[in-house]
Amino acid sequence: MNRLRGVSLSLIALLLALGGCATRPINPPIPEATPNTGYTFQTRQKHSKSQDALVILAFSGGGTRAAAFSYGVLEFLRRTEVTTASGQKARLLDAVDVITGVSGGSFTALAYGLYGEKLFEDYEQRFLKRNVQGEIIKRTFNPGNWGHLSSTGWGRSELAADLYDEILFNGATYGDLNRGTGPMILVSTTDIASGGRVVFNQDIFNLFCSNLDSVRLARAAAASSAVPVVLSPVTINNYGGTCNYSAPGWVKLFTQSPNPPRPAARAVRELKGVEPYTDSVRNPYIHLVDGGVADNVGMRGVLDALQFLEALHGAGVPTPLDRVKRIVVLVVNSLSSPAIDWNKSESPPGTVDILLKAAGTPIDHYSYEAVELLKDISARWEGLREVRRMAGCSTNPGSPICTAVRVPQAEIYAIDVSFAALPDAKERAFLNEQPTTFVLPDEAVDRLRAAAGAIILASPEFQRLTKDAGVTVIPAPLP
User: Fold this and answer.
1) How far apart are CA 148 and CA 396, in angstroms?
2) 82 and 92 in contact (C-beta within 8 Å)?
3) For residue 101, what are the CA distances in angstroms to 48, 59, 225, 282, 394?
4) 272-304 in b/e burial notation, b at 16+ Cβ within 10 A?
5) What is the mean pLDDT of residues 312-318?
6) What does the alpha-carbon distance between residue 153 and residue 27 come to, in Å, rounded to a whole number?
7) Whole-angstrom distance, CA of residue 66 vs CA of residue 297
8) Are strands 411-418 and 98-102 parallel, antiparallel or unpaired?
9) What are the tens digits of pLDDT across the range 158-174?
10) 71-92, pLDDT tens digit by residue?
11) Dist. CA 382–CA 310, nearest whole Å
């Protein structure tokens, strides 16, 4: 018996030792950074649905709550048609050009970008109505994984990424995503060292002198949802400075000018924040955590892009978006606001509750501010256009005021898709009580999906869009 026990212990030790040899996936280097290649906004323009409109969906973080809510938006857009004055019909979903995803929202964004129409066949069973959180915990406490978890660079998020591959992504990479014809998918994470956003696209990976095509979608989703402390950071290699990378000319206009064109001065901070990545000697590794730490609604990149567009237009620099007449942004914000009764008790809340509230409150406030900033940009552009109209710039573009006041022609439609916009107070209260976890009851998933369509249909901004576009909405009933 002692010999058998010794053999068993030796076998366990051997398995743990072998497991300890596990290494994280390494993103490969590129010898030369080639602009306008790979998975970038520029290269995806060939799949643009319209020459005069840009439609963006911004999927927030929030675990399965966010994944289900954003999926409900896709379902609504898929089953909803519009009819033009000439009688032509089109699905709203087919007009989407870009989807940004953060944390829980990144799963829906990436899965739709990968599978397209096939997503609607089994996404519920494969992910939304699955106890993903329980499976991660089970694998974490499986002795067979302890050796892996103790190895350098391979933590709980790598274990989670492997699970996401098994149940959802099937080993697909950004190369697979790039070969598709769907909308541009921009998944955000946070560099825990700098606090800045890192977006998975080849433009950013050119800074790292690395090839994005070989990066697994499951790993991007794991990085975007790697809640600090609960899950480990996802580490990627940085080879910056080894591939002759040179920033685009428009970037230099902002980063090398002592007085960057307004109103993009705030967005310039984002551009300068990535400059350290070009020095891999000092920064050989980048550790990524939940994208919600830097931007929980996936709106920072959209806001920066609009500010740059306005500044470049004012400076007379042409951009790919000069042709766009309408910019439609559906801010799909699954932020929940559960009732808190701390002030009713003499005893203060516990340490864990305080830590969670302290971490979440700034994120919640920024989520609100991001939507309001988008509305502010829209109002400012409309105000500048009104100045030009009063000055008669359409007939006298060379007048001093018309030369000084320049503004993009695009009208911005900021459609707020959040629980707060839900007309039904009872349903709003129910959704606000759903936790930020990767497991929810089936009923909660279904009610989140249904709520998304109801909110969009009731949105005054959505109604303004359809009126201005001269289309009639034909919503189909829920299946």
Assistant:
1) 70
2) yes
3) 19, 5, 10, 30, 39
4) eebebbbebeebeebbbbbbbbbbbbbbbbbbb
5) 81
6) 13
7) 10
8) unpaired
9) 899 999 999 999 999 99
10) 999 999 999 999 987 888 999 9
11) 12
Q: For residue 131, count CB atoms less than 10 angstroms from its CB and return exposed for 0-12, middle for 13-18, buried for 19 or more.
A: middle
Q: Is 369 exposed, middle or buried (0-12, 13-18, 19+ CB in 10 A)?
A: middle
**Number of neighbours of residue 404 by Cβ within 10 angstroms:** 10
Write the pLDDT tens digit of every residue in 357-412: 444 444 555 566 777 888 899 999 999 899 999 999 988 888 888 888 888 889 99
CB neighbour burial string for 165-202, b if at least 16 within 10 angstroms, e if fewer: beebbeebbbebbbeeebbbbbbbbbbbeeebbbbbbb
Handedness of CA 62, 67, 68, 73 (dihedral sign): positive
Residue 54 φ then ψ, to 5°: -125, 115
**How far is the C-alpha of 474 from the C-alpha of 455, rounded, in Å?**
16
Strands of 66-163, DSSP E = 80-84, 89-91, 98-102
At CA 118, angle to CA 117 and CA 120, rounded to 5? 80
Which range has the worst mean pLDDT, 110-119, 289-298, 383-392?
A: 289-298
* Tokens read off for 56: 């963006």
What whole-number distance in Å separates Cα of residue 201 and Cα of residue 206? 9
How far, in Å, CA of 434 to CA of 175, rounded?
A: 35
| Separation CA 268–CA 259 (nearest Å) | 11
pLDDT at 449 > cutoff 70 = yes
Determine phi and psi for 456, rounding to 5 degrees: -65, -45
